[in-house]
Amino acid sequence: MKYEMPDINLKALFLGVKGENTDLFKELLLKMVDEHVGWRQNYMPQDLPVITPQDKSSKSFQETADHMRSVFNLLSSKLRANSLPWHSAGRFWGHMNSETLMPAIIAYSAAMLWNGNNVAYESSPGTSQMEEEVGHEFAALMSYVKGKSWGHICADGSIANLEGLWYARNMKSLPLAIKEVAPEFVAGKSEWELLNMSTAEILDILDQIPEKMDEIKAHSARSGKNLQKLGKWLIPQTKHYSWLKAADIIGVGLDCVEEIDVDDNYRMDIDKLEAKIREFAAQQIPVLGVVGVIGTTEEGQVDRIDKMVELREKLAKEGIYFYIHVDAAYGGYARAIFLDENNEFIEWEKIDEVYAKHNIFSEPCEWLTKEIYDSFKAMNQAETITIDPHKMGYIPYSAGGIVIKDIRMRDAISYFATYVFEKGADIPALLGAYMLEGSKAGATAAAVWTAHKVLPLNVTGYGKLIGASIEGAYRFYHFLYGKEFKVGDKTIRLYPLTRPDFNMVDYVFNEVGNTDLEKMNKLNHDFFDQASYVKGGLYDNEFITSHTDFAIPDYGNSPLPFVKSLGFSEREWDREGKVTVLRASALSPYAHDKDVFEEYAGEIEKAMQSKLEKIYSEMEANAKVEVAVR
């Protein structure tokens, strides 16, 4: 009998702002603990307990138990005193973190009792199978071909990005290695042609000579040869800093990394990308790969992956090929909102109908554009994709992930440790042979697997959660837009940075009439100080946010149109060289609800007013001190 998915109610999936679902949480967690203990008792029932009643009644046992209770009292005190209220429905609008799914927390806690190490199947048969299943679910989420693609869980997006560059580096070097080991398969090709072979071409050749694979790999980039020949790794200005670390660690070096300008919507400028690739080609410098971002770290914007793919197809006709990696650590799970109940990518003409059927948004939402739609749709043309369950998967840390379009690519990076797994064995026994990490928690796999079972990776499950997050972000965006505050004789106005591509909302305060960019930057930094635990505290801080700087060394002049729209001159921008913005990653699973949001909106506005009054009061006090000193 087929199990029918219910109409998911998101409020049943989280512990709750005030712990409203504590009873359900305890019920499920206690059930899992009891069943684990029952398993221990049923395994070799003839074995007697080793902790006896006499042990438990001894003085040292009791004192040790009391000591443990005291330590947990201390732990609780530290956590309550020094943790941020990620769980709040409307107080926390800051860092990329949120309340996590209750089923994922329970699964993680339960699986820790079994202490699985997912590097080796013999150490964790249950959770290794779960990870293998999750990897295929990642691949299905990206619309990769079933049975020909793969994925796995890793610690975080930085590790996944490193693996993506590892794949690209090794794949790019294989034609040079083939020329050394089996030259007849690349006969007549120049070095430039070898370095511009497509991933599919390379894999098709390797399929013909499996007996030479180990020798070819020995001559590949893993030997340390030809690293300087592989070309440039192109990333947008909005890149995550992990790409610099990855280039350093993987050996291609920081000199191979080139940043491509972004436009005033903070998406990679595809025309600039093409110009840069052609500039390199004119110098016979190949492109190792291009990174597109789905959900930039600071802005939440979505690069035009579709235009990137179109450019690759265009240049391939001219003998230029580049590997594509999509860094969707933040936005990868959002692809679920584009998949119907059969996991098929929804046609553009039918998407509103499907959203209405599954109640993705509670009210009409202007979020989705054809540009965003096309960008997400084209993700399945990338060789590798980073995706982080511990971001938009709402799963506890640490849970990153990577998806590989062609499963054959694994052989380019594989290693086999005989004490852990046997070469030639079936997955998941070989899981650890195809990834960067060694020992890794089976509990993470259990948490992700369980979350995916509760919330399928399509509109019936995660699509609802992603939709709620986006709708909450747009409520916050509209709340901010044009809002004004009176502080004495000053008027301070709020300005969102850009229309969100996802659920990140960046914004600034500026005093009406102010044309001093340094003064505006200081105001926003002072506001962040008041709206953070550093200066504003925790328990009496009614609005918490985050901040960042868009500076010329990282962003070039891409912030200039925004800066000008606020009334600042280009000369002022050149003088200050940065704009300080406040940053809200809107992950709350509750703020999409109109009534909930409006209840908190009034409190947020009062908190903003209070913080601004405090800032200007301190400014006046400091000014008086300076006058007195003079």
Automatic annotation (TrEMBL):
Cofactor requirement: pyridoxal 5'-phosphate
Taxonomy, superkingdom: Bacteria
Listed name of the protein: Histidine decarboxylase
Single GO molecular function: histidine decarboxylase activity
Lineage: Bacteria, Bacillati, Bacillota, Bacilli, Bacillales
Pfam families: Pyridoxal_deC (PF00282), tyr_de_CO2_C (PF21391)
Family matches, as SUPFAM superfamilies: PLP-dependent transferases (SSF53383)
EC number: 4.1.1.22
Keyword Lyase in record: yes
TM ranges: none
Residue ranges annotated for the L-tyrosine decarboxylase C-terminal domain, each copy included: 472-612
Keywords carried by this UniProt record: Lyase, Pyridoxal phosphate
Originating gene: hdc_1
